[in-house]
Design brief:
4 helices; Dihydrofolate Reductase, subunit A; two-stranded antiparallel ribbon; alpha/beta; 190 residues; 32% strand; eight-stranded mixed beta sheet
Length: 190
């Protein structure tokens, strides 16, 4: 919790390899982009109508047709005091853009009680010590990357939810995901 806001981190990574969770490569997702529509649907469902904090590099990596993220207050965290964003006119309903220069400032200007941290690696490292919840999609595959989620002390967290997303057909249900994944929700043990 920071500034009386519930801080939630949401991220996707490859399977654990050498105690590392790969979350990015070349300022993008490392190979699974577009292969997990169920994860993108979950992301939209969980973060809509809340504030989201994202780093400038993450902001830059978002396809322009999806910027700003609709139905969210997009708070871009940057060290650059000169950073500006071209704000499209008109902004979609329930959508805002703000710039902050510290995690504390970002949570102060947040308009929602629940704030989602959506990346990247440096922003996750700043937020992890303050986070109340982790929402993690683990892609059941190995990917090369150059950006990693910070080390997690799992003794500080308890699992509160789990879902296995598999690509195979079961009965009449056919999943659109092209890679198997596991989704986990954790709550911090304060």
């Amino acid at each position: 919790m920071l500034n009386r806001k519930i801080l939630k981190i949401i991220f996707a990574s490859s399977e654990v390899e050498d105690d590392k969770l790969v979350i990015g490569k070349d300022n993008d997702l490392p190979g699974w982009q577009g292969l997990l529509p169920s994860d993108m649907s979950r992301f939209v469902r969980l973060t809509s109508y809340h504030s989201v904090i994202l780093g400038r590099k993450t902001w830059d990596s978002i396809d322009p047709k999806f910027k700003p993220l609709k139905n969210r207050q997009n708070i871009i965290l940057t060290r650059d005091p000169e950073f500006r964003v071209e704000i499209p006119e008109p902004l979609p309903t329930n959508t805002e853009i703000a710039i902050a220069h510290s995690l504390e400032e970002a949570t102060q200007i947040s308009k929602s009680e629940m704030v989602w941290v959506i990346g990247g690696g440096e922003i996750y490292a700043l937020a992890l010590p303050h986070a109340d919840y982790l929402h993690w999609t683990m892609i059941r595959n190995q990917f090369d990357g150059d950006t990693f989620f910070p080390s997690i002390d799992w003794n500080q967290w308890r699992k509160i939810g789990e879902e296995h997303c598999v690509t195979r057909v079961s009965g009449t249900e056919k999943r659109k995901d092209q890679i198997d994944s596991n989704y986990y929700a954790f709550q911090r043990i304060w």
